Amino acid sequence: MKYGFFDDEKREYVITRPDTPAPWANYLGSPDYGAIISNNAGGYSFAKSGANGRLLRYVFNGNDQPGRYIYIRDNETKDYWSASWQPVGKDLNEYKSECRHGTGYSIFNADYAGIKSTATYYVPLNSAYEIWALKITNDSGKKRELTVTGFAEFTNNSNYEQDQVNLQYSLFISRTLFEKNRVMQQIHGNLSDVEKSKPVDNKIVTERFFGIAGAEADSWCGDKERFVGLYRSYKNPAGIENGNLNNIASYNENSCGAISAKISLNPGEAKTIAFITGMKYSDEADRIISSYSDTENKINTELNELKNWWHSKFRNLQVNTPSKEFNTMINTWNAYNCFMTFIWSRAASFIYCGLRNGYGYRDTVQDIQGIIHLAPEMAKEKIVFMLSAQVNNGGGLPLVKFTHNPGHEDTPDDASYVKETGHPAYRADDALWLFPTVYKYIAETGDLAFLDQKVPYANTDTGTVYDHLKRAVNFSAQRLGPHGLPAGLYADWNDCLRLGKNGESTFVAFQYYYAMTVIRSFAEYKKDSEYISYINDKQAELKKILNELCWNTDRFIRGFTEAGETIGKRTDPEASMWLNPQSWAVISGFADEEQSEKSLDSVNRILNTKYGALLMDPPYHSHAFEGALAVIYNAGTKENAGIFSQSQGWLILAESLLNHGNRAFQYFMENAPAAWNNNAEIRKMEPYCYGQFTEGKASPHFGRSHVHWLTGTASTVMVGCVEGILGLRPDAAGLKISPSIPSEWKGFTMEKNFRDKRLLITVENPEGKESGCSEFYVNGKKLEEAYIPQEMLTETTEVKLIM
Ligand code: GLC
């Protein structure tokens, strides 16, 4: 079933059937003020923190309610509907609706009873409040008298949990009042005579506003129960049915902001108004609302700014391949998804409630990789931040608090850190993710001087970036298990695999192997010969152990438990085949040709499905060892033989590195949201964003996907496609181009900004190959290999590769 389509020109996903199999969401705003909105206007908002700055309420596990509702009432017929299909939910034969999710904005077009409306929701750039703009047009040929009402349901406490569960407290701190053009909600309003700078029991007055611009408020309501009415719902609120909100304030009730305006429209006439909401004190709210007096112009200007901001980032890489799905993902949706994970980490979605008040180390360091080619300066800032969350022993802080204070943090060795974050110990992989990330940043920009930049450690001490990386190597080197492989510590990438403190993980071993290759290249640049020979020895030792102990005929094992049990042998009754060790054996440069080919063939044979490759198989059920936490999940779910989407990106990359373009692209398509657009009822999730996992073949809902938007998948697939399939592989001195594409592609083009120059790249594939280069030209000059040295870059550099 198809619910919508990609409007690639506008970079919008257009939902033409609003009864989607799940709420299909979009993000508005920035870390300062964030909002999530579904295709039925459901969703919530928060200032600064999803957990502690929640101002619009949303009920998780609910019915995609409440939301940012705009009701329209015909005062003659008394019929009413909403600007988004829900909550009123008119018969879709009569109510025409279209939702356009764009970059940082969502538009709802509705056409009902001769009235057309366009509701546009966005957070203006660099602002901390949100706009619900409504353009309403009389398309009916006769004069119409309408009442338009905006409704926002406030939380009673900025802390999401307090609002949801501590009602004996949170109900009695909230009240609303009306001023001029806005409902003001006050939390702890009774503290208004106590100075703002002097909190009582850590509390101060907090204010939220819901205002109107472009029209006069005719009536208002600040009490949710009175607005909705007893035994009613958002579908038929009393205040809407009556056509009057009766100017009701709340005091010890659930607060809301609701404002009605009366609008008369002659035939063909249109009017634009805006509802504005945010967490601001009254004077600031007044200033904000007043600035929208020229409503329509201001809104258009702001929307253009927003689009320009986003689209200019995307323009740093645009591709035109024969695959529409690939183009839309790489040019817009995967890129947008990467920025969302980069900016929001795992803070807020319809699945993440915002309670994780910090950055997961490994997650964020990986998220950065997804945007390096689009916004290297943003990437650099975050890399420095994450380096500053590395403890001076080289390990990463498992959780980096949003309030992170470099040089002054406690570590997993301190009880206080464990208590505050809930993370009991170091994980084996965290700091190792720095290697691909720092490498990619330097390769994209050529900024080798970055290695000498000084960055503080999380707890104490300062060192150059190079020093940070050396300590990360050292962290692993000093924590080896009995076989000499990196010890499992608390966990590796797989949260559900507890091999034990002295267990050993092949995945981490491959990361460690790769880290040594990266740092050797930096050591060569720094002419650090002593360190080079140290690394050479270490890497050779590791290689020997991996070859002797971890290769198992046609696959790499997953590791050893602390008790000495081997995990992931071909003869194991469960979990005998694991995906990540196979892809990482290739990515790390460890596996020889035979191992690479065999292990990826095994993946294809044993793990692949039409929705992507399983994380492992068979699922744990009767044979789980003590640390096989995946067994707690239903078979075919998440780490227990689900199709863990993040791992698909590594598989795409690994196949590409082996020049298997057909397979790389096959894996891309199996898991690409856009590729399921016409069968969206199977995947259920948004066809324009990645999810954490898809249910595997052991599940009765094989193919259904979950945990939308905030997933490491965004960055791994992006890297798999850009570096892998498209073959854009920069290094400090230039750019190598090594596409690994489906043989049926006759060619493709790319436009890429690279070190302030514009590259126009054409790839031709007359003989239907999967990889390779027979001729290569830079600005018409034929070169021996498909590599553009930095010196050859001109303002616009034309590149041609014939495969
Ligand atoms: C989730 C976590 C991530 C972890 C992965 C695999 O995506 O956010 O940190 O690596 O699961 O367990």
From TrEMBL:
The keyword Transferase applies. Residues 11-294 form the Glycosyl hydrolase 94 supersandwich domain. Residues 309-727 form the Glycosyl hydrolase 94 catalytic domain. Gene3D superfamilies: 1.50.10.10, Glycoside hydrolase, family 65, N-terminal domain, Maltose phosphorylase, domain 3. GO terms for biological process: carbohydrate metabolic process. Coiled coil: none annotated. This is Cellobiose phosphorylase. It comes from Treponema rectale.
